[in-house]
Amino acid sequence: MDGLLDTGALENDPSVIYLLDRDWRFRLCNAAWDRFALANGGEKLLRSSMIGSALFDSISGEVAGHYRRAFQRVLDTGAVWQQEYECSSARVQRRFSMQVYPVDGQLLVVNALLVEAAHPGDPFPGIEGSYRNSDGILVMCSNCRRTKTNKPPARWDWVPEFVGSRPPQVSHGLCQPCYEYYCARL
Amino acid sequence: MELRLLLVDDDPSTLKLFSLILAKGGYSVRTAESGGDALQALSAEGKFDLLILDLCMPKPDGFEVLKQVKELYPGLRTLVISGYLSGALLPASECLGATATLNKTSAPELLLAQVNQLLLG
């Protein structure tokens, strides 16, 4: 047990769970953390390396600000905070629910998998000729990382080869759903 | 007096979104969908306070525009925006005279703050 927590139950929970102390340092990561890290090329992020390190040493910028504000609000108010987010790899589409609980002055963060599936296939996966435009440029959405086809009507495809590597001559644009997403936030 | 920005990107949706963001911040925004259009605007439409420039575009691309701006308009501040501001691109754009750089993925959130910082201090 760690204070109020049943660490044995957390260890065996299928959700990726971690505990942060008031300095945002990892106090505990469960077995699902390691399984997720190993399945996604994160050998350097196993819990043996993470315990004791600070969450905000690993993330920065707007993302860090978002989580710092949300986590601090949980500590200040004692109210549980929840969000859904996408964490996809080049070949697997995943959506998680994150719930953050205040526990004895610390934060218990539970990341439950909601959806995991192969990205929907497209007719021409990996064929640059279907995507490079007449100027030889690939147009990729800077938000969702889908790539625009080069023949009308344009379609935005998830192309693992373009996400997993960095092909030359990529121009970053915005697909219509991502454009509307940002406009709605203005 | 409104500060004038020249915003260059070959993606129409990016141009629209960034224009909206900057107009809400009180700036006058002239958009250009190509490097050629941007150079034309610089030569024909008077002084701009800031050039916001995408790198990867059909010729002339952002690097070529940067080179010409450095030569023809040495006082013009330039914010380079690109999806891949790592590896060689970032130092290359700075060598060519970019005043500041911004990753396109973060731009919807950070663009206005960065422009304010460059122009208003």
Description:
The complex is a heterodimer of chains A (186) and B (121). Chain A has 186 residues and is an alpha+beta fold. In chain A, the strands form 3 sheets. Chain A has a 5-stranded antiparallel sheet. Chain A has a two-stranded parallel ribbon with strand order 6-9. Chain A is 27% helix and 28% strand. In chain A, a hairpin with a 2-residue loop joins β4 and β5. Chain A is built from 6 helices and 9 strands; from the N terminus they run αββαααββββββαβα. Chain A is elongated and about 60 Å long. Chain B is an alpha/beta fold. Chain B has 5 helices and 5 strands; from the N terminus they run βαβαβαβαβα. In chain B, β4, α4 and β5 form a beta-alpha-beta unit. The longest helix of chain B is centred in the last third of the chain and has 14 residues. The mean pLDDT of chain B is 90.
Task: Looking at this protein, list some descriptive labels.
heterodimer, A: 186 residues, alpha+beta, 5-stranded antiparallel sheet, 6 helices, 27% helix, 28% strand, elongated, B: 121 residues, alpha/beta, 5-stranded parallel sheet, 45% helix
